[in-house]
Every structure is written in C-alpha cells, then in structure tokens.
Amino acid sequence: ASVPVVSAMVDELSALGIPSEYNLKKTNAAQSKVSRPATRQKYPWFELRHIRDFLRFRSGIRSTDDLEKVLGLVSSWIENDVAELVKYDLKKISQPSVFGWRVLVFDFRLSETGLLVEYYVTFEHMIHANQEWLHSVFEKWREKDLDTLKRRERKEFDHDALFSFLSYESMFVDSATKDGTFFDDKEKIDGGVGSVISGVEAMCP
C-alpha cells in the first residue's frame, strides 16, 4: 500500500523535470544493515522495524531552481497530509562521511500507512558516480569492524576512503559552482553550504 504513495510522490518530482526514482531494500540487505558492527556499536537497540530506508526514493538535482522545487513539494506533502516529516538530516550535506558522500536527507512517515520512508537529494552527477563505481568502494568496507583492522587493511581502507572522498568532493564542488549554480566560487563553498542549510530550515517545519 505504501509503494503507490511513494510512486506518486516520485511522479510529482519527475513532472517538474527532476530525475527521481524509488526502490525497495531487499530483506537480506535490510538484515545486513541491522547487524553491521558499526550500527550495533552506535545503536545497540536497532532492529529491522527501525529501518527508515526499506522503501526509499531520491532525486538528482542540477540547480538551485531544482532544489527550490524539491522543497516546495516537501512542504506540499506535509501541508496536504501526504506524509509527516519525522526529521531531516543536514549534517550529511555539510559534514560528509569519511567516503565523501553528501546528501540532504528527509525521513517521512506516510500518512496513509504509517510506514517510515527515506528521501534524499543530491547532485545528479554524484548519483551517477555512486551507481557506477564509488558505491562499490563503500560496499567493500561497510561490513568490516574498522576498529579491528590490521595495519595492512587500515592502510588499504585509508587509501580507498581518501580516493572516494576526493572524487565526490571534486564532483560536488564542480556541480555547485558550475555557472554560479549554487555558489560563485570554490572559496565560498562552506558558506554556500550554510546558505543551503538555512534555506532548508526555513522551508521545513
């Protein structure tokens, strides 16, 4: 019952010219997420019922206009009781992970079914790179307990993480500064990210 609701939300995004899609996490992938050492260490209470991206959707933006359209739809979903905004995570855009992945993340509870779903937004080029090669770098290490790596493994991890981080960062800066899309120059990237965050906070309850 939840898939048609999310599918309709994706259709609304796509109708505005914003490439968007949804997918369902496979059961074995969900179980793997729950049992990861890093997850168990940080959230010992975490169970399958707490997963917010079992059903998830995403958008690849190209410009400030695209971001404004996304936020406009987010507001309309909340106002029209399509979904409740449970939380939004802005740290992932201003403070990327060790692998460099930057996204705006929204967690919704669908009003019709009560299911928690995840929606994330980032630059279209970063999504393509993630799909084609960089996600495999993350996958290589996601099940590992980083605290128990041997020296050789740690060196390999550091190399892979730096490679991924610099790749994503280059794409993020290039996309964000292209034709003044978000920020006028690369020196203003941190302040520009802050402006985006302020805009999201202003438009979301």
Structure explained in plain terms:
The protein has 205 residues and is an alpha+beta fold. The longest helix is centred in the C-terminal third of the chain and has 27 residues. The chain is 54% helix and 17% strand. Helix 6 packs antiparallel against helix 7. A five-stranded mixed β-sheet has the order 1-2-5-4-3. The model has no long low-confidence stretch (mean pLDDT 79).
What class do helices, strands and sheet pairing give? alpha+beta
Distance separating the two termini: 26 Å
Low-confidence segments, given as residue ranges, are: none
The number of helical runs is 8
In spatial order, strands of the major sheet run 1-2-5-4-3
Q: Give the proportion of residues in helices.
A: 40-55%
Strand content: 15-25%
The rounded Rg comes to 18 Å
* Total DSSP E strands: 5
| SSE pattern, N- to C-terminal | HEHHEHEHEEHHH
The dominant shape is globular
Largest sheet: 5 strands, mixed
Overall pLDDT score: 79
Compact description:
With 205 residues, the protein is α+β, with helices and mostly antiparallel strands. The protein has helices at 2-15, 27-35, 37-42, 64-79, 91-94, 124-142, 151-177, 189-203; strands at residues 20-24, 55-61, 83-89, 104-110, 116-123. It has a five-stranded mixed sheet.
Brief descriptors of the model:
205 residues; globular; alpha+beta; 17% strand; single chain
Question: Could you outline the blueprint of secondary structure elements for this entry?
Answer:
Elements: H1 2-15, E1 20-24, H2 27-35, H3 37-42, E2 55-61, H4 64-79, E3 83-89, H5 91-94, E4 104-110, E5 116-123, H6 124-142, H7 151-177, H8 189-203
Parallel strand pairs: 2-5
Antiparallel strand pairs: 1-2, 3-4, 4-5
Helix pairs in contact: 6-7
